[in-house]
Amino acid sequence: MTRKFLFVLGSSRPEGNTEILARRAAEQLSSDVEQRWLNLADHPLPDFEDLRHDSDYVRPSGDSTATLLDATIEATDIVIASPLYWYSVSATTKRYLDYWSGWLRIPGVDFKATLTGRTLWGVTALADKEPVVAEPLVGTLRNSAAYLGMRFGGVLLGNGSKPGDVLKDERALTEAKTFFAQEPPLARFPYEN
Question: What is the set of domains in the chain, with CATH numbers?
Answer without folding.
Answer: 4-192 (3.40.50.360)
